[in-house]
Specification:
The structure is a single chain. The protein has one domain (2-110). The radius of gyration is 16 Å and the shape is elongated. The chain starts with a helix and ends in a 6-residue tail after the last strand. 42% of the residues lie in helices and 20% in strands. Strands 1-2-3-4-5 form a five-stranded antiparallel sheet. The chain has two helices and five strands, in the order ααβββββ.
Length: 113
Amino acid sequence: MEEANAALGRVAAIVEQAQAALVASRAAVTRVRSNGHKNPADPEGLLRQAVEELAADGIVLRDAERGLVDFPARSPSGRDYWLCWLVGEPEVAWWHWPEAGFAGRRPVEELPD
């Protein structure tokens, strides 16, 4: 968890880039639909780049719009779980089992054994 919190500054910046790319992508789609001209910028490429940059460290951008990120973690017993963070949260304060997803978030004070 300390590593995830230490990475938050960099991760937050990347997620904010992904969010901006998502907004730009939606705006580009709207422009194409309204006037038939393509946007010379590639917002989808910027979003893909952000996702790939996080993935290189095993971090998963679950929802760019909300800024939902999962960091991989492993319990002392060897079971994998996710540390869960949303843009705007001051630190990683939640975790969940892979099968439980966001709805199954629990406070890090209750980390698994």
